[in-house]
Design brief:
This protein has helices at residues 15-26, 51-56, 61-64, 100-110, 151-156, 178-183, 224-237, 287-304, 310-335, 359-366, 375-378, 396-399, 410-422, 426-438, 450-458, and strands at 5-11, 31-35, 48-49, 70-73, 75-80, 85-89, 95-98, 114-117, 124-126, 131-133, 137-144, 166-175, 192-195, 201-208, 211-218, 248-255, 265-266, 269-271, 357-358, 379-383, 386-389. By secondary structure, the protein is α+β, with helices and mostly antiparallel strands. The protein has a single domain (5-458), classed as FAD/NAD(P)-binding domain. The strands form three sheets. It has a ten-stranded mixed sheet, sandwiched between helices. Strands 1, 2, 8, 9, 10, 11, 17 and 18 form an eight-stranded mixed sheet that branches. It binds flavin-adenine dinucleotide.
């Protein structure tokens, strides 16, 4: 029996896959999105998106927020776990907090593609027309958007693992009871970001309406759980989150952008989003690169007009390089001595895909005796938009029991010292940490680029 044939199959219906599919539909190319999950499905993620993502997706946050959680962010609190923090405020929303179970479902339903949900892609084989999937569907063109464990990426790499730095992460998201919401001192419009003391990762505490999201990510580092416990103890001790957390943390991982992006294209196939490993190195933000790579891939496919060989698709890899690798070079120069993501640590040990951690026991082990912050006594304005907040110190005896740092040589100690000093500087926190590394305000919209507009004309 002849198998049915599809023009384009997108494997994975996350932000990368649905953005790619929506753009293909808009450009008149028939497309099927194939995801192993039935939506709504959750994705381990803090759920922080920037306005640039909303623009690229043609999504109005106010409209979206009528039926979904869409928390405007007007400030950030930034510091080192256990140390003083700096709060930076803005006059208008600089980001939004969404829930991935809602956001991804909304984007997938809206994309207008045919959907094949609830069955994993297990087998991908070359055939004369392009590819055969699970032995029963042929496609001329394949888009790998299956995230960190994408089967298309695995096939294109010949089963080998990527050498890019991996960030194992753990996270919990839950709806607070009214009692918990009353006692939680994290403000909804002000997510809190705390760097680990060895600068190999950071933790966050992010309130989206009644939902609380707490997590931590560290570069290829096995002591993730120890740092998570340290962070939870800190949140409890300072009264930020004074109650026991319900449930367990979930683990996932993502790869940081690491050139060269060799596997971005193959004959009749491209990779987008986490399948390729495009998360911004300093912040781990992956949704924007996922959406943008999905859009760029769709335009490349449309412009190829059925000639899906590698040389034609190479344009997509070139765009990615210009956009993401060029941007990374700028950021690296700005970082100077403080390499918050320590990209030399590429050994991805302790991948926490099924590693689960009981928060209740961690929080109990942490103890809760120290006094909480007193906002009026501890806040000191530095500029009209920033203020310093003092954190009660641990007793010296406790401080000495610090978690041993990885690769604790003189250079790393120097970097940590520089990092500590810089994180006390309101200018550095606002301009470099937030606006450059986390908000990417200097990166123009994806379709403002010369290359993309020329594709628009061709397609
Ligand atoms: C703890 C944590 C916090 C994060 N926080 C943020 C944040 O706040 N902001 C941000 O921008 N980024 C964040 N990221 C990164 C972000 O989540 C990812 O970069 C983003 O989800 C990538 O989107 P994607 O579409 O490429 O992949 P995904 O969102 O992972 O989607 C992949 C899809 O492929 C499907 N799939 C996988 N395997 C198969 C298969 N065999 N067959 C069929 N379908 C398959 C999956 O079901 C899934 O729906 C975070 C990551 C982690 C781990």
């Amino acid at each position: 029996m002849t198998q049915p044939i599809s023009e384009v199959v997108v494997v994975g219906g996350g932000p990368a896959g649905s953005a790619c599919a929506a753009e293909l539909v808009r450009l008149g190319i028939p497309v099927l999105v194939w995801d192993r999950a039935v939506f709504p499905r959750d994705k381990v993620c803090a759920g922080w998106i920037t306005p640039q993502i909303a623009d690229a997706l043609r999504l109005d946050p106010a409209e979206y927020g009528r039926r979904h959680v869409c928390q405007p962010i007007l400030a950030f609190r930034v510091g080192l776990i256990g140390a003083d923090t700096i709060e930076v405020q803005y006059d208008r929303p600089v980001s939004y907090g969404i829930r991935r179970c809602e956001f991804d479902t909304y984007l997938l339903r809206r994309c207008g593609a045919a959907l094949q949900l609830g069955e994993p892609v297990r087998r991908i084989q070359r055939c004369s027309e392009g590819w055969t999937i699970n032995g029963r569907l042929r496609t001329r063109m394949l888009v790998g958007a299956g995230g960190h464990f994408c089967p298309v990426a695995r096939t294109l790499r010949g089963g080998r693992d990527s050498a890019a730095p991996t960030v194992p992460a753990q996270e919990i998201e839950f709806r607070m009871t009214s009692e918990q919401a009353r006692h939680c001192r994290v403000a909804p419009e002000c997510p809190e970001l705390y760097f680990c003391r060895d600068f190999l990762g950071y933790a966050w505490c992010f309130r989206k309406g009644d939902y609380l999201n707490i997590g931590i990510g560290r570069i290829g580092e096995p002591r993730l759980s120890a740092h998570l416990q340290d962070f939870l103890a800190f949140l409890k001790r300072t009264g930020r989150v004074p109650f026991d957390l319900p449930g367990r943390f979930k683990g996932h991982a993502y790869r940081l952008l690491a050139p060269p992006l060799d596997h971005a294209v193959a004959d009749a196939a491209v990779l987008v989003g986490d399948a390729l490993g495009l998360a911004y190195p300093q912040s781990g933000e992956g949704i924007r690169p996922a959406v943008e790579s999905g859009l760029l891939a769709a335009r490349t496919i449309a412009a190829a007009a059925g000639r899906y060989d590698r040389t034609v698709l190479q344009r997509y890899a070139d765009w990615l390089h210009d956009r993401f690798v060029g941007d990374r070079a700028i950021d690296d120069a700005a970082m100077g001595g403080l390499d918050a993501t320590a990209s030399s640590h590429t050994d991805a040990t302790g991948l926490a895909t099924d590693g689960r951690f009981s928060t209740t026991s961690a929080a109990t082990a942490a103890g809760t005796t120290a006094p909480s912050e007193s906002p009026s006594a501890d806040e000191r304005p530095t500029t009209p938009h920033t203020k310093r907040l003092t954190t009660p110190r641990l007793p010296a005896r406790e401080r000495r029991r610090d978690i041993p740092a990885a690769g604790d040589g003189p250079l790393r100690r120097l970097r940590c010292l520089a990092g500590r000093l810089l994180l006390r500087n309101p200018w550095f926190v606002r301009r470099i940490v937030l606006e450059k590394w986390f908000l990417h305000r200097h990166v123009p919209p994806v379709f403002g680029t010369r290359e993309a507009s020329s594709t628009d004309r061709r397609s």
